[in-house]
# Entry
Amino acid sequence: APRAAMALSKLSGDEQGIILGQLCNALEPRLAVYFSSASSGLRVLLTPALRQQLRTDHEAAAALCRKMGMRSCKELREAKEVDCRDKGLTSDDLALLGKLGSVLPALERLDLSDEPAAGPDGVQRLAERLGAGALPAVTFL
# Structure
């Protein structure tokens, strides 16, 4: 039997908050902005402070992408393979990469071999920032 369509406006504030949380993606922030423009419930939840945080997160993600030699956040979002060797990535960079892990569904291979600028805790910080279900396609780390 076909499922009945449900208007976003019929969802509770908590449910809308969960949806907005999934839309707040540092690599593609416009999704949250577009959806909040189309829904009064999401518009209320996407506060100026949250919008500013999304902008700040996107700027940091874009800087990381450039540091890794990528032209755009889209390139990282769609990458199947990322080579971080000899990019001078710091521990903070690896922590950010870990935070972005949940929005990298295509990534199959992440090469971090011997990144001295990251220091001894770089990979640990990356791992700490990875959430449940992050990097679902990775077969090589």
Remarks:
- Residues 79-141 form one domain.
- Residues 65 and 75 are 8 Å apart (CA to CA).
